[in-house]
Design brief:
heterodimer; A: about 290 residues; alpha/beta; Elongation Factor Tu (Ef-tu), domain 3; Rossmann fold; 2 domains; seven-stranded mixed sheet; 9 helices; B: about 350 residues; four-stranded antiparallel sheet; 12 helices; about 30% helix; about 20% strand; globular
C-alpha cells in the first residue's frame, strides 16, 4: 500500500501563521483597512511565492476565512498586504484586530494576470472602488519591471477623493512620466481637487488609448462599472480576448474542491479569478 | 483472478477475525432502512437490503469532519495557530458496498485528488479503507447504473467483490492487493469449483438485464453549454423543487462542503460539513449579491454540474452512477433521468422521453 502521508507534502487547508505588522485605515468611511502581515516562520515567505493578481484566504481561528486579493507586489519583500472591506463576520473581526495579533494566511491561490502575454504590450488598467487591490500589486510590479511593458495607463475612480485607496502612492505615480494616471471621483466639493471628476466609463472613453493587438485592458470594479465600461472598450476597438477581468464569488476552500465558486466548468478560485472577456462570454453569468 | 467459496458461517467467522487489525464496518438495519455502521465482534453485516439509504460516500467523506484545531488562550505559544487533524489511521474493512456507490469514489476522486492539490482527508480515508462490494441481484425501479457508467457487478473503486451464490453462501474475489490482504487476514482459503467464473459472468449478465431504466448521455458533450443553460425546460424542471437538498445529501457523487470554525471556551476546531448547491447561502456574496439567488438557478446548477460541466471538464462520463436515490427520495418526484433526456435531446427533434 502506498503511504499517502508521504505523497501529500502539504495540507492545502492549513494557513501559514502570520503577525499583523501594520494597519492603515484607507478611506474616510473607515470601512477599508490595509493589513500588513509578516510570516512567523521566515521560510514560509519563500513557500508563498506569488504573482500579481492572485489572492489568499485570510484565516482567523474561531471565525473562519475570507478570500482577499493580494495588494502587495511580489517585488515587495518581507511582508504581504491585503486591503479588506468590512462586510461580514471575518472581515469585521479582522477590522477589530490589533498590530501584533497572530492569524493565518493560506495561499497564494488562483491564477494571475497573464504577465507572459502582457510582456512588451501596452496595458490599460481600469479600476473602481475597493477592487483596486490586485491592481495596486500589478502597477507596482510593472513599474519595478518598467522596461518589460509598453505604455501604461491607469483609470481609477472612487465615489469621493476620501474613498480612493493608496492615496500617497497615487500621488507618486501621478508625478512619474512613465505611467499615465487618470484618477477620477464621482463628485467632490473639494476646490483643491486637481484630477478628473466623472464616472469611470466616460473617463475611460476620454483617456484610454484605442485598442489594438498590442494593447490589453485589465478591468476590475463593481458590476455597474464593468457593465458601462465594456461598451466603451468595445467602441475603442478592444477585442474580447484583450480585455482581462478578475471575478469574485463566495469561496471556502480556495483550491477548486469545495464547489462553492463553480461557474460552468470553471472554479473561480482555481481556474480564475482572472479570465478574459472571451472566456467569460462562454460561461453562465453566475458571479 | 481466483474466486473463493464462503458459506455463511465462514463469512461471519472471517469478518470476525478482522477485528483488531481493522475497524470493521457493514450495513445494519435501522428502522426500515440500512446504513453503514461499525460492526462489533460477533456482529454480522446485514445483507438483506437493496441499497443503503445513505450512500457509502460518508465512509470516506464524513458529513462533518474536523480538519484542524486551535487554542485561543493567549498564554499559549501556539495561540491562534491552526494545527492539522487527520482522520484516524486505523485500516478499515467495509463490507456490503453496492457497486454503484463504489464507482462513485472514482468519480469523486477526480475532484479531491488533483495534480495541483491533494485533499489529505479524503485521500487518506480512501486509501486506508478496504472496500468489499456486494454484487446487486435485485435492483430498485429507480436504478439506471448500466447507462451511467456503472453496473450491478461493476468493480470500479472496490478492493474485493462478494457475489451471492444461489445455492447459499458467497463467492469472494480480490480485486486489489488490499483486497487480497483482507482475504488472507479473514482466512478465506477454499477455492470455488471450476466453472464458477462462467457462472458469475452469466449471473452478471442476468443482473444487468434486470436494470431496465436507462439514460442517454451520448449528446451531452456536443451540446453548447450556454444553449443548455438557457434552455426553456429548466422552468418546468425546477417548478416543484422545494430546495430541500435531499438529492445532494443522498447522492454518492455530490462532494460540496462548507468550512466552519467551532469554538468551545478557549479552544476549537475548523471543520468541514457537507453543503448543498440547493441552498441560497451556498453562493451568497458578502455584498448581498447572489449569483444563484433563484431556485431555478440552483436546480439548473445541480443538473448542469452533473450532466454537462463535469462531462466537459473530465471527459469521463457523467457525474452520476445511477444509484437512483435522488429519484426515489425526492419529495416532489424530480427525476434526473428525465432531465438527462431533456438535456441530451436538446436540439434534436421528435425524440420522446422514455421515463
Amino acid at each position: 500500500m502506498t503511504s499517502t502521508r508521504e505523497e501529500i507534502v502539504q495540507n492545502p487547508y492549513l494557513p501559514y501563521p502570520v503577525r499583523i505588522d501594520e494597519i492603515v485605515t484607507e478611506t474616510e468611511d473607515k470601512n477599508l483597512k490595509t493589513f500588513k502581515f509578516v510570516f512567523l516562520d521566515p521560510d514560509d515567505e519563500k513557500k508563498f511565492a506569488y504573482h500579481a493578481g492572485q489572492f489568499a484566504e485570510l484565516s482567523i481561528a474561531g471565525k473562519g476565512e475570507i478570500p482577499i486579493g493580494i495588494a502587495s507586489s511580489p517585488t515587495e519583500k518581507g511582508f504581504l498586504k491585503f486591503t479588506v472591506n468590512k462586510v461580514g463576520l471575518v472581515s469585521s473581526h479582522l477590522h477589530a484586530m490589533k498590530v501584533g495579533d497572530v492569524m493565518g494566511v493560506r495561499g497564494p491561490l488562483g491564477n494571475w494576470y497573464p504577465w507572459e502575454v502582457l510582456e512588451g504590450k501596452n496595458v490599460v488598467i481600469v479600476g473602481g472602488g475597493f477592487a483596486f487591490t490586485t491592481l495596486r500589486s500589478s502597477i507596482i510590479y510593472m513599474l519595478e519591471n518598467r522596461d518589460r511593458f509598453g505604455e501604461i495607463h491607469v483609470v481609477y475612480g472612487a465615489r469621493t477623493p476620501g474613498m480612493l485607496l493608496y492615496r500617497e502612492e497615487l500621488a507618486q505615480w501621478e508625478s512619474r512620466d512613465d505611467i499615465h494616471m487618470h484618477i477620477t471621483v464621482d463628485a467632490t466639493d473639494d476646490p483643491d481637487w486637481k484630477y478628473n471628476v466623472g464616472f469611470v466609463p466616460p473617463i475611460t472613453e476620454q483617456k484610454a488609448p484605442q485598442g489594438d493587438g498590442d494593447t490589453y485592458a485589465i478591468v476590475c470594479g463593481p458590476p455597474v462599472m464593468i457593465k458601462f465600461t465594456q461598451p466603451v472598450l468595445d467602441q475603442k476597438g478592444y477585442a474580447h480576448d484583450h480585455i482581462i477581468m478578475s471575478l469574485e464569488n463566495r469561496m471556502k476552500c480556495g483550491i477548486g474542491i469545495c464547489g462553492h465558486c463553480n461557474v460552468g466548468r470553471e472554479f473561480v478560485c482555481k481556474d480564475g479569478p482572472v479570465f478574459t472577456l472571451s472566456q467569460l462570454n462562454q460561461l453562465p453569468k453566475e458571479y | 483472478m481466483t474466486t473463493f467459496q464462503l458459506d455463511s458461517d465462514r463469512l461471519t467467522e472471517g469478518i470476525d477475525r478482522l477485528h483488531g487489525q481493522y475497524r470493521v464496518i457493514g450495513p445494519v438495519a435501522e428502522g426500515r432502512f440500512h446504513n453503514f455502521r461499525p460492526l462489533q465482534p460477533g456482529q454480522k453485516p446485514d445483507f438483506d437490503f437493496r441499497n443503503t439509504r445513505m450512500s457509502a460516500k460518508q465512509l470516506v467523506y464524513p458529513q462533518s469532519q474536523v480538519m484542524a484545531e486551535y487554542h485561543l488562550d493567549e498564554t499559549r505559544e501556539d495561540s491562534h495557530i491552526l494545527k492539522e487533524v487527520l482522520p484516524d489511521e486505523t485500516p478499515r474493512a467495509v463490507f456490503g458496498i453496492r457497486p454503484c456507490d463504489a464507482d462513485a469514489f472514482g468519480l469523486v476522486r477526480r475532484n479531491f485528488d488533483t495534480e495541483e492539490y491533494k485533499d489529505p482527508y479524503w485521500i487518506q480515508a480512501y486509501e486506508r479503507a478496504t472496500l468489499v462490494g456486494l454484487a446487486c441481484e435485485d435492483p430498485c425501479r429507480s436504478c439506471f447504473c448500466t447507462s451511467a457508467g456503472s453496473g450491478p457487478y461493476s468493480t470500479g473503486g472496490l478492493d474485493a467483490l462478494l457475489v451471492e451464490d444461489p445455492d447459499g453462501g458467497y463467492w469472494f474475489q480480490s480485486l486489489t492487493e488490499k483486497g487480497e490482504r483482507l482475504r488472507e487476514a479473514a482466512g478465506w482459503k477454499e477455492e470455488a469449483g471450476s466453472g464458477v467464473e462462467d457462472t458469475i459472468a452469466e449471473r452478471k449478465k442476468a443482473a444487468e438485464s434486470r436494470i431496465v431504466s436507462q439514460v442517454h448521455t451520448d449528446q451531452l458533450r456536443n451540446q453548447a453549454t450556454l444553449d443548455l443553460y438557457e434552455a426553456p425546460f429548466w422552468e418546468d424542471v425546477a417548478f416543484s423543487c422545494i430546495n430541500c437538498g435531499t438529492c445532494t445529501y443522498l447522492c454518492p457523487t455530490c462532494w460540496c462542503f462548507d468550512i466552519q470554525d467551532e469554538t468551545h471556551g478557549k479552544k476549537g476546531c475548523r471543520m468541514r460539513n457537507w453543503d448543498s448547491c440547493m441552498y441560497p447561502l451556498f453562493t451568497l456574496h458578502g455584498s448581498g449579491h447572489n449569483p444563484r439567488g433563484e431556485k431555478i438557478q440552483r436546480v439548473r446548477q445541480r443538473f448542469m454540474h452533473k450532466l454537462k460541466y463535469y462531462v466537459d471538464k473530465y471527459d469521463n462520463g457523467i457525474q452520476c452512477v445511477g444509484c437512483g436515490r435522488c429519484v426515489q427520495y425526492c419529495p416532489v418526484n424530480i427525476d434526473i433521468r428525465r432531465v438527462c433526456e431533456l438535456m441530451n435531446q436538446r436540439g434534436s427533434t421528435g425524440a420522446a422521453c422514455e421515463v
